[in-house]
């Protein structure tokens, strides 16, 4: 989930099937009693056995939650990376069983969202219709749509998130950056497949939001060395690869173009535009308008003729549901923040950033900016409570007084500089290169129509210009937002789509 865009002008936003334990949480913890306790020097780990039914197939599996230590040349621990692995039992040939490594974004977010929202053996039940999740207790359900019938899954909390942290003489700067973080995660993957004898297993990686940025950087770290870890697929959920779309500096027209189809979809959802038209058709019309009339007008700048200005203003009003008078005052340029505040102003409501189906009420209805994002505070309590409950009661994890940092736990600056790129962050090129150099690599992209944090049109733009093999890129769209899985129909579709992608990639 959550995305913290780079740059001083960026707004900071912090931001599978049922498992029935065969042993009690306490028994599971006791079974791993040989693992070092919280007061010992070594990594801590807890294992327990479970059984669940996924896509109609019963799977017995071992859940292992614990730390992996990174050590320096002298063997001293530098960092502890926490992960949760669900691995099928009774597989005679490990190379026949795929393994998928997943993480969330931020940077600074733990893997709670993909874990408890869509791909873990349990999931949290939040309202599907964009209502607030309210107060506890929250429901935690079996998750029969998870893909554990076709792949093992390892949820990774990068250093600075979850229980993961630096140790001893370890420096946060060794992990806090696009490249540094990717090296850290790739190092964990190499250690995990070595310790679990999975070098020849089919492998997938994936992430959400900044986690897609991380995915592009990790594939570079895995496949660009002399000891390559080749991948079968990359799963990109709510992708952000080219950060130029987040820079709303005067003169950069790209963000205005990239967000327009999301604005049109949002206006359609709230009954402000596109009546009688499906959201997919309305979005298609907005794409066409953005690439043609709107782009032509913005690129002319002050030289835009009065006649064309009127025509474009009328088109914008029709697509976005905003008045022509308001659009005239904005110079035909719409930032997401202004749109979220303006669209439903007459109703006294704002719309969400992560998911514009959600609405909120601000203290100041006349303001320019929203007080907070209703699509984040509308779900965070439920995810926090159920993840901590599952860790302690379901997996037997006892980290003592150590706090699990779900979001914003970095406590240090993030290095956005990339090798050979000094102006802005764009990692899409690394996916294009990986596809050119690995003929077996497939990419899946999931996008929500109502996502302002990582708009779907921007993801299309990013991957359309990096030399990728589009025959091996699968796109899927959902009538929801950034975490499309909070919408129950989209959850079911995403689970089917990802499972089908894994199977199809292996059959290619």
Give the tags.
508 residues; Rossmann fold; alpha/beta; 15 strands; two-stranded antiparallel sheet
Category from helices, strands and their pairing:
alpha/beta
CATH superfamily name of the largest domain?
Alpha/Beta hydrolase fold, catalytic domain
What is the name of the CATH architecture of the largest domain? 3-Layer(aba) Sandwich
- Global morphology: globular
Overall pLDDT metric: 90
What fraction of residues sit in β-strands?
15-25%
Please give the radius of gyration in angstroms.
Answer: 23 Å
Helicity level, as a percent range? 25-40%
Number of strands: 15
Number of helical regions: 14
Query: What CATH first level of the largest domain would be assigned?
Result: Alpha Beta
**What characterizes the major β-sheet?**
11 strands, mixed
* CATH fold-level name of the largest domain: Rossmann fold
- Unreliable runs, pLDDT <50, ≥5 residues? 5-40
Order of helices and strands: EHEEEEHEEEEHEHEHHHHHEEHHHEHEH
Alpha carbon gap, first and last residue:
30 Å
Q: How many discrete structural domains?
A: 2
Topology (SSEs and partners):
Blueprint: E1 19-21, H1 25-31, E2 45-54, E3 57-71, E4 77-88, E5 99-103, H2 112-119, E6 122-125, E7 139-142, E8 152-157, E9 165-166, H3 178-195, E10 203-209, H4 210-223, E11 233-239, H5 254-269, H6 279-300, H7 306-320, H8 324-329, H9 336-342, E12 350-351, E13 359-360, H10 374-377, H11 380-394, H12 428-437, E14 442-448, H13 456-463, E15 473-478, H14 488-507
Helix pairs in contact: 2-11, 3-4, 4-12, 5-6, 5-13, 6-7
């Amino acid at each position: 989930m959550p995305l913290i865009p780079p740059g001083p002008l960026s707004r900071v936003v912090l931001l599978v099937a049922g498992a029935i334990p065969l042993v009690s949480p306490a028994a599971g913890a006791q079974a791993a009693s040989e693992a070092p306790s919280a007061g010992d020097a070594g990594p801590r780990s807890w294992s327990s056995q479970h059984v669940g039914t996924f896509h109609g197939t019963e799977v017995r599996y071992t859940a292992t939650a614990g730390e992996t230590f990174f050590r320096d040349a002298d063997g001293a621990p530098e960092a502890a990376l926490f992960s949760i692995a669900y691995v099928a039992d009774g597989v005679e040939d490990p190379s026949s069983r795929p393994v998928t490594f997943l993480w969330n974004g931020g940077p600074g977010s733990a893997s709670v969202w993909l874990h408890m929202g869509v791909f873990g053996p349990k999931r949290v039940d939040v309202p599907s219709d964009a209502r607030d999740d309210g107060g506890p207790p929250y429901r935690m359900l079996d998750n029969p749509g998870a893909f554990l019938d076709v792949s093992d899954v390892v949820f990774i909390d990068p250093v600075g998130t979850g229980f993961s942290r630096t140790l001893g003489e370890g420096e946060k700067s060794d992990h806090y950056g696009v490249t540094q973080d990717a090296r850290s995660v790739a190092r964990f993957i190499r250690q995990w497949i070595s310790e679990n004898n999975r070098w020849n297993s089919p492998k997938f990686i994936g992430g959400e939001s900044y986690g897609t940025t991380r995915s592009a950087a990790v594939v570079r770290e895995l496949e660009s060395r002399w000891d390559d870890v080749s991948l079968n697929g990359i799963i990109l959920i709510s992708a952000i690869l080219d950060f130029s779309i987040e820079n709303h500096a005067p003169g950069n027209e790209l963000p205005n173009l990239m967000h327009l189809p999301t604005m049109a979809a949002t206006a359609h959802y709230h009954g402000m535009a596109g009546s009688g038209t499906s959201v997919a058709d309305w979005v298609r019309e907005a794409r066409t308008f953005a690439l043609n009339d709107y782009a032509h007008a913005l690129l002319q700048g002050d030289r835009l003729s009065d006649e064309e200005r009127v025509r474009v203003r009328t088109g914008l009003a029709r697509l976005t549901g905003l008045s022509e008078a308001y659009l005239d005052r904005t110079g035909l340029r719409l930032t997401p923040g202004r749109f979220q505040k303006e669209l439903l102003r007459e109703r006294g409501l704002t719309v969400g950033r992560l998911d514009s189906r959600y609405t909120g009420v601000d203290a100041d209805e006349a303001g320019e900016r929203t007080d907070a994002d209703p699509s984040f505070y509308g779900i965070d309590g439920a995810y926090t409570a159920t993840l901590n409950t599952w860790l302690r009661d379901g997996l037997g994890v006892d980290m003592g007084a150590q706090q699990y940092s779900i979001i914003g736990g970095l406590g240090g600056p993030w290095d956005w500089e990339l090798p050979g790129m000094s102006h802005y962050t764009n990692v899409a090129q690394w996916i294009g290169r990986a596809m050119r150099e690995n003929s077996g690599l497939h990419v899946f992209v999931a996008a929500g129509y109502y996502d302002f944090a990582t708009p779907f049109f921007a993801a299309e733009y990013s991957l359309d210009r990096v030399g990728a093999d589009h025959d091996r890129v699968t796109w899927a769209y959902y009538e929801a937002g950034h975490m499309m899985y909070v919408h129950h129909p989209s959850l079911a579709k995403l689970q089917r789509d990802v499972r089908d992608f894994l199977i199809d990639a292996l059959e290619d």
